[in-house]
Design brief:
alpha/beta; 6 strands
Length: 208
């Protein structure tokens, strides 16, 4: 994925760069549903407290429908995300910043995802769009040693841990019960963690 030898800063998009729930919940209302919580109140990804009358397969289907709707291409940046990525680009100009997102497999989904990030001028050097729910393992394995990955889903964070990356869990109410040794409550903390990790001196192999 990267031609650079230096560590890469890899970012998820939904829930890290863009406010996915802030777009998805209003869209549900346009489809005739009545979410019982606002986007910022949602504390569980199974949506049991939000749409108690729908099944998990129905929710997955709705997520797929949203991914090809115009609203998907109009998601707004999370608070502090634009400024954070700009800061990282300025402080670490030799480190590539990329996005890896499991947004959907439809061509229109990929087009809208790329266009949305470009519209907000995130300055991401490459965007990989995977099918909904797809593992990011192979993409993370392709990154240089010492690379950093920021995601809001603990399953993706665990994969990053398994492949030897520095993984940062981006906090939201829906992952408040998930534990990890590196967590960021917003982009100010995320930038501080990334800065600390990239500024650490590289380990020197001991002599035989």
């Amino acid at each position: 994925m990267s031609n650079h030898e230096l560590p890469v800063i890899a970012l998820d998009v939904d829930g890290v760069l863009l406010d996915y729930l802030g777009g998805f919940v209003p869209w549900l209302r346009t489809q005739g549903y009545n979410p019982l919580m606002e986007a910022h109140e949602i504390n569980d990804w199974d949506f049991g407290n939000v749409l108690p009358d729908i099944t998990v397969p129905q929710l997955v289907d709705l997520i797929g429908q949203f991914a090809v709707s115009p609203g998907f291409g109009e998601l707004v940046p999370l608070k502090g995300a634009l400024e954070a990525v700009k800061t990282l680009r300025e402080e670490f100009p030799n480190h590539e910043i990329i996005a890896i997102t499991s947004a959907g497999s439809e061509a229109i989904t990929e087009q809208m995802r790329r266009a949305n990030l470009e519209k907000h001028a995130f300055g991401i050097s490459s965007v990989t769009v995977l099918p909904l729910g797809a593992s990011k393992r192979e993409n993370l394995l392709a990154l240089p040693a010492g690379s950093i990955f920021v995601d809001d889903l603990i399953k993706n964070i665990r994969v990053a841990d398994e492949v030897g990356m520095h993984a940062i869990l981006f906090r939201h109410p829906y992952n408040a019960n998930d534990s990890h040794h590196l967590c960021a409550d917003g982009w100010t903390e995320a930038v501080a963690l990334i800065r600390d990790l990239l500024n650490r001196p590289a380990s020197i192999p001991s002599a035989a």
